[in-house]
Amino acid sequence: MPCSRLCDVARRVGARHYGGLVSTPLNLARAMGEDLVALRRDLHRHPEIGLHLPRTQQRVLDALAGLDLEITLGAGLSSVVAVLRGRAATPAGAERPVVLLRGDMDALPVQEDLPHDWVSATPGAMHACGHDLHVAALVGAARILHELRDDLAGDVVFMFQPAEEGPGGAEPMIAEGALDAAGRRADTAYALHVISSEHPRGVWWGRPGPEMAASEEFTIVVRGRGGHGSAPHRTLDPVPVACEIVLALQSTVARGHSIWDPVVVTVGTLHAGTAPNIISDDATMTGTLRSFSAAARTQLHNEVVRVAEQIAAAHGMRAEVSLHLGYPVTVNNPAEFAFAKATILDLFGTERWVDMPDPEAGAEDFSYVLQEVPGAYVFLSACASVDPLTADDNHSPRADFDDSVLPDAAALLAELALRRCRLTR
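Predicted structure:
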């Protein structure tokens, strides 16, 4: 659908009242604010990591209890998919809209270092990326839309997803049918992410097109022939060859890729040998690759293999390269992003929006959803510090999220679904 029409509908629908002033999504969200904060803090006290989050899954089910939802639980992971059927009619002959809203549920292997009375009770685990807020916001959106289902001219899929931090929950949920839970493929999908730094609390931001990077890990093992450090001519020393590969990878980035479609190669570890006077048989390096387009990603994969293997071969050695593919590029559909931005501006005002000039080099597995259906992913500051520029960032043991933003987060998700469902295909 053209961007101009989406944005126009976002502005016009924003002027509507869903059952009166008290029943607007934002007012409903504010009325349930204390409950959403209580849910978030309970989740924060009991973080779970990875694909299997049994307590978190049950807590979500408890929070959705009593709502008229069609709920499906994951077979291979602790996911929850809930479908709400709107009661408002669609025009004769029009296909009924389906909107997907996603919230990730998993925590990180981080030991929390904050003074609150709701800190993690699980040693070595913490909601250091704010996914507890995402769960509470999505529950809030489900409650709001259930209250307003007489005005909902479509169906909404609520996707509660484990393992965003790894090994990845979106892909297996898609394989299990999450995108088709309403009976056909979702028309569009939306998600948000809270950030504990960078902007003052309550500020939203994002960008059309590539918004977050693709990310993967690599391992390169240079196979040489070890021996005594006093006689390197009797060996095939893998250490200088490994160092040459590291430098060549950086030259490849600088000279082989457009500055307008950048990539990042980081060698994070380099290990060889067991003693100062021993030349090792092998040298092993590991690192990460980040890119912002599918073409640059494929090119970079090929270059890492070529550079490592050919430099090793030039020295009479062999390089074994393993690529561990991560999440693809997160790409906002321009029209859906413009629609989401127009909705944010209408709800919260221009002073609470900042354009995002450049993509974020972190990765996000909502990218798998956006590969399948057009949609948008936006950021919301939940910074609890007076100075967001010096506040600890997501993934820090001191990442501090102000959960007073929860009503706004829930209201936005609900508004996006309500407004988008008023558009027919």
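Summary: Residues 237 and 281 are 7 Å apart (CA to CA).
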